Amino acid sequence: MEHQDKNQVILLAERPAGIPTESTFELKEIGMPELKKGEVFVKLLYVSVDPGMRGFMNKGTDDAIGLKFEIGFPITSRSVAQVVESKSGEFAKGDIVSSRLPWQIYQTIDAKKVEKVDPTLGSISTAVGVLGVPGLAAYFGLEKIGEIKKGQTVVVSGAAGGVGSIAVQIAKIKGCRVIGIAGSEKKIEYLEKEIGIDVGINYKKTDDLAKAISEACPNGVDIFFDNVGGKTFDAVLGSINKHARLVICGEISDYNENHPPQGPRPHHILIQKSARMEGYVVFDFMDEFESAKKEISQWLKSGELKYRENLIEGFENIPAAFIGLFKGENIGKQMVKVSDVTSS
């Protein structure tokens, strides 16, 4: 078996109370796994870190979103890897694959649980970014839940993040007026000048967010794509139009709350506006993944859709990259580069 590097794994050391810290994780050196029939032996290349993973760290039962992490066992997330050796007829040495994988540099996995990455669609890291769950979440949230149409007004919270930065661009491609909410002037500059949204709102510099949204949306809000929840959701709610769609993709403001604060109950406004609020999991639309990836890929190749990765290098830095999500450090998709691709 060809490898020269040591093998390491990152485990869940303790369940966090609030925002995870370095003590939430344990970096451990381990031996190399033994490859069995029907498996592939892979090395990690890119690891995605996503805010929604925070919920997997809480004690509880598994649900539709994913498996809960157990203390003393590896953290897992969507990752890109390269096949080092294969005992499966489906994969060969050098193949690039993607799956939900443990945070472990070298590992074996059932070949049925990985899929090949198509390098013709985009760079291989996009398999866990714009052409992976983040991009697909933006695409299906707007297309299927939001039922987006040209000329509508779309508001996106967490607009400079991995999902939000794609959602605002899809909305622009579809011919909508787009307002993005983010938490720094650097992010607002990125959204307005580089991506080209209509209005960016820095919620940290706004005394009255509801008023700022109302002023930015003089014709009301047709679609609210929400990645944040909490007070941001409350602020947008008062500006929604008749038959508005509220697309609930995430709630990063509450992921670290042991007892999330009770905000305004939206029932009355939803009734009054004949509006619809709907949450979703991207895997609800798994049967349409490939066609969606092809359309997103075309937007990338044409230059209509710009993609930014906030790339952090080093396996040992995965916990810090994850923690950084809750400090608002990233513009675009936060991910970690673990290894270089090995030439065949």
TrEMBL record:
**Sequence ranges assigned to domain Enoyl reductase (ER) in this UniProt record:** 18-336
One of the Pfam families matching this protein, by short name: ADH_zinc_N
Does the keyword Oxidoreductase feature in the UniProt annotation? yes
Write the record's keywords in alphabetical order, separated by commas.
Oxidoreductase
UniProt GO molecular function: oxidoreductase activity, acting on the CH-CH group of donors, NAD or NADP as acceptor
Q: What Gene3D superfamilies does the record tag this protein with?
A: Medium-chain alcohol dehydrogenases, catalytic domain, NAD(P)-binding Rossmann-like Domain
Name by which UniProt lists this protein: NADP-dependent oxidoreductase
Q: Which organism is it from?
A: Kaistella flava (ex Peng et al. 2021)
